């Protein structure tokens, strides 16, 4: 079963649940892949840490996760 996007999900859970999300993370230069903090940071916290627009990242992650071609 494919993961659904949730505002309180951690970056690690999002990437594990939908590997298509990893592409979005890497495109934004986020270092979440393999980071030990990713299992604690939500999208909001990760966006703030990387000085990125939370709304944009959330939108792109949601699109990647919900895409019929994902994974």
Automatic annotation (TrEMBL):
InterPro entries per the UniProt record, alphabetical: CHP03980_redox-disulphide, ScdA-like_N_sf
Matches recorded under PANTHER family: BSL7085 PROTEIN (PTHR39341), DUF1858 DOMAIN-CONTAINING PROTEIN (PTHR39341:SF1)
SUPFAM superfamilies per the UniProt record, alphabetical: SP0561-like
Protein name: DUF1858 domain-containing protein
Highest taxon above the source species: Bacteria
């Amino acid at each position: 079963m494919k993961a659904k996007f949730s505002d309180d999900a951690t970056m690690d859970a999002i990437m594990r649940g939908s590997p298509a999300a990893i592409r979005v993370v890497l495109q934004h230069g986020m270092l979440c892949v393999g980071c030990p903090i990713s299992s604690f940071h939500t999208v909001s916290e990760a966006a703030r840490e990387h000085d990125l627009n939370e709304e944009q990242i959330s939108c792109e992650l949601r699109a990647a996760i919900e895409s019929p071609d994902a994974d």
